[in-house]
């Protein structure tokens, strides 16, 4: 199972402030962090709480960086294409969809997490 995290506490604090993302840390399993104060006492990975994973799904109006693959080009992925999100299930790609990351939501920078 993929776990999303921020190693930069400032990026995690941004997500908490602007998008209501909640976090957990490995040192305190089950403890939910809703805001981050500076300077943070914790310097490890800030894992996205399972209740916040829906924030990583595109919504209409998001600016996305989308990556595609193409067997014809023998490349693992093509460079990012920037698109505005529309209802995700209505999108028909000419190339094979590989992955995405949200760049901006509601005109505000969206800090995309790392994953493991």
Give descriptors for this structure.
single chain, 116 residues, mainly beta, 4-stranded antiparallel beta sheet, 1 helix, 8 strands
Task: Please describe what this structure looks like.
This protein has 116 residues and is mostly beta strands. The protein has two domains: 4-56, no CATH class; 63-115, no CATH class. The protein is 9% helix and 28% strand. It is built from one helix and eight strands. It has one helix at 9-19; strands spanning 4-6, 23-24, 46-48, 63-69, 81-84, 96-105, 108-109, 114-115. The strands form two sheets. Strands 2-3-1-8 form a four-stranded antiparallel β-sheet. A hairpin with a 2-residue loop joins strand 6 (96-105) and strand 7. The N and C termini lie close together (8 Å). The mean pLDDT is 83.
Q: What does the main sheet amount to?
A: 4 strands, antiparallel
Approximate strand percentage: 25-35%
Q: Could you give the count of β-strands? A: 8
Q: What is the average of the pLDDT values?
A: 83
- Overall radius of gyration: 16 Å
Low-pLDDT runs: none
Short recap of the structure:
By secondary structure, this protein is mainly beta. It has one helix spanning 9-19; strands at residues 4-6, 23-24, 46-48, 63-69, 81-84, 96-105, 108-109, 114-115. It is 9% helix and 28% strand.
Topology, pairings included?
Layout: E1 4-6, H1 9-19, E2 23-24, E3 46-48, E4 63-69, E5 81-84, E6 96-105, E7 108-109, E8 114-115
Antiparallel strand pairs: 1-3, 1-8, 2-3, 4-5, 4-6, 6-7
